[in-house]
Amino acid sequence: MISIGRELRGVVVDAQNADSYSKKLNRLLELSAQREARSHWADAAQGQVYPDLVRAVAWQESCWRQFVIRHNKTWYLESKSGDVGLMQINKYVWRGLYNLPRLKWDIVYNVTSGAAILMRMLEGAVRHASGANAKPDELARSTYCAYNGGPDAYDRWRHADEPALARTIDAAFWAKFRTIAQGHSFDILSCAAQWDQAHGQ
After folding, report:
1. What mean pLDDT do residues 51-59 have?
2. What's the confidence (pLDDT) of residue 38?
3. CA atoms within 13 A on the CB side of 115
4. What residues make up the domain containing 34?
5. Residue 46 lies in a domain
6. What pLDDT does 48 receive?
7. What is the pLDDT of residue 134?
8. I need a labelling partner for 28 at 20 to 30 A (CA). Which of 58, 107, 110, 124 fits?
9. What's the number of domains the chain is made of?
């Protein structure tokens, strides 16, 4: 992971490097998921869902980007709500637990921190779903809801009265997760343009 991190340090994806960037970033996400999975007990459902979950969440949160160009300078990706980097880790919620400058500027640290948070949420989703009865797809949806909305949001996607914005977010994640699970890739540049427009970047 360290060598890939060096290669991706300060790299902004563009039309010239999109293909090589995607391959390196995919490998970084894969290695990060493997590392986190090895350090935690995982049942069959968790093991089936977790690697795809890491990839899909990174797609949903940042279009696989840690860095962007802002005011003609390379800068870390940040949303208006204070979510930073590739895994869009909130600098207020996770303050004190993670090193903020490293979340901003160290892509490997951001990815591994996000993967750890996801594992924590996935373990919570398994407990919430009564362990062995949990279905992998349901675990994925519940885990992302908690990652996006906090531990009280595990069941958000199940509710017919879910707020419109949350429903849109959850539907977008679910479409991405299924795409990843089926082995398909996505267009980073188109995704990035949509993300920037939606976030007023």
Report:
1. 97
2. 85
3. 25
4. 2-185
5. yes
6. 78
7. 73
8. 124
9. 1
